[in-house]
């Protein structure tokens, strides 16, 4: 769960940072475009300014120019020698640089919506009196002699004012104002219309807003998709883990059941169903291993073969049900009479065998007699019926030349046969 949350937080953080980067890139691009557009305005205004300055210098170097008088123009009263007569028929009017720039400005404003003006903080002609922008620009230029121009982007136009410095030719008109060559005498203003600029800025802002919305929306979608995908994957893995756990529990349960079933099957395969004693198969499996151990360790080993006397007669007299109960009865008495290390098994019918480890034939005989007497002194009771039971026993000891368990059992069987032939209800050692 922690790794899932970390992966989601990490991915969302990366997308968020990438989104901020894209948004900043869009904003920087918009700002760069705006600066570039302002630079274009500056280049346009500065080009016009330089052209006018060139024209002004040309006029100044020529000592002003003269034009033919016409009805719409009068001589400038602030210019010395403003009127000259060539002859009685023609009148020429002197046009200095400032007047020429003002005339060009008026023509331009009528046709191209550009505005030009020569201005000064101390103008000779009141028409050249500065407005607020021009005052602010001239003060800045006067306070900073190294600065050559001042610009301002206003609501409807881009204003550019370049510094006009005193040239020797300027002193003829401004000799009473104590100017020196190189002083800032005023400024030449150029105002450029910004309709196209504003339209372009509006378009780029609109596109930037659209790109910002698309970027944010796309990032939110990606965050949602990534979160949903990671959550789904971890939920699927969690379900798989739960299924695996459930399957593991089921497998363990089935394995346990199978082991118990196998155990029961094994017990069934080695246990006599009637007496719950080990059967013939188990007796031989354990007996063979015990025989080899006894031979290797040179330890005595004996076998007792047991047979219930007249068992057929019991079945015929009392029935097989009573015969089965007597088999159980005899089995319980023998089980109580032997050691836990001894193996008592039902070999079939009314026959039993006892495997005695670390026991010689004489010790086996003592045990056989104990078992025989215990059974003889007991009687089976079923309701009002009482049945007396006796057994015959044959005993044999492992010999040095015995190679298998059958040899010992055969001798014990022969001793049992002799006991039944002799008188029954006795124990005989094979000799």
UniProtKB/TrEMBL annotation:
PROSITE patterns: GGDEF (PS50887). SMART domains: GGDEF. It catalyses: 2 GTP = 3',3'-c-di-GMP + 2 diphosphate. One of its GO terms (cellular component) is plasma membrane. GO terms for biological process: cell adhesion involved in single-species biofilm formation; negative regulation of bacterial-type flagellum-dependent cell motility. Residues 299-431 form the GGDEF domain. Its EC number is 2.7.7.65. CDD domains: GGDEF. It comes from the Bacteria. GO terms for molecular function: diguanylate cyclase activity. Transmembrane segments: none annotated. It is an enzyme of class 2 (transferase). This is diguanylate cyclase.
């Amino acid at each position: 769960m922690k790794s899932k949350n970390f992966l989601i937080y990490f991915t969302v953080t990366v997308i968020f940072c990438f989104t901020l980067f894209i948004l900043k890139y869009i904003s920087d691009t918009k700002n760069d475009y705006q600066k570039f557009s302002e630079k274009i305005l500056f280049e346009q205004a500065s080009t016009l300014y330089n052209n006018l300055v060139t024209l002004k210098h040309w006029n100044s170097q020529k000592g002003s120019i003269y034009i033919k008088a016409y009805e719409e123009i009068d001589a400038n009263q602030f210019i010395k020698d403003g009127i000259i007569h060539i002859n009685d028929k023609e009148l020429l009017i002197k046009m200095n640089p400032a007047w020429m720039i003002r005339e060009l400005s008026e023509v331009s404003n009528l046709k191209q919506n550009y505005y030009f003006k020569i201005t000064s903080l101390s103008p000779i002609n009141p028409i050249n009196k500065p407005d607020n922008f021009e005052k602010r620009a001239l003060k800045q230029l006067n306070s900073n002699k190294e600065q050559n121009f001042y610009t301002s982007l206003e609501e409807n136009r881009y204003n550019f004012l370049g510094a006009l410095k005193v040239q020797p030719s300027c002193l003829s008109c401004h000799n009473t104002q104590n100017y020196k060559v190189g002083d800032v005498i005023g400024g030449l203003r150029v105002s450029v219309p910004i309709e196209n600029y504003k339209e372009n800025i509006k378009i780029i802002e609109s596109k930037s807003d659209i790109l910002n919305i698309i970027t944010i929306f796309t990032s939110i979608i990606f965050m949602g998709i990534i979160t949903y995908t990671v959550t789904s994957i971890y939920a699927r893995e969690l379900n798989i883990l739960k299924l695996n756990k459930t399957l593991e529990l089921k497998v363990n349960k089935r394995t346990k059941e199978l082991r118990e079933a196998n155990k029961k099957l094994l017990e069934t395969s080695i246990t006599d169903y009637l007496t719950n004693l080990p059967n013939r198969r188990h007796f031989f499996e354990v007996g063979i291993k015990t025989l080899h151990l006894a031979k290797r360790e040179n330890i005595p080993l004996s076998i007792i073969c047991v047979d219930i006397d007249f068992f057929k007669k019991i079945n015929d007299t009392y029935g097989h049900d009573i015969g089965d109960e007597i088999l159980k009865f005899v089995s319980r008495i023998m089980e109580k009479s032997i050691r836990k290390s001894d193996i008592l098994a039902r070999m079939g019918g009314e026959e039993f065998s006892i495997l005695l480890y670390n026991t010689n034939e004489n010790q086996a005989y003592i045990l056989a007699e104990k078992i025989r007497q215990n059974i003889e002194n007991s009687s089976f009771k079923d309701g009002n019926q009482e049945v007396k039971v006796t057994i015959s026993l044959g005993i044999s000891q492992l010999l040095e030349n015995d190679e298998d368990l059958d040899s010992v059992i055969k001798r014990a069987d022969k001793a049992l046969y002799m006991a039944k032939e002799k008188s029954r209800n006795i124990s005989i050692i094979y000799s």
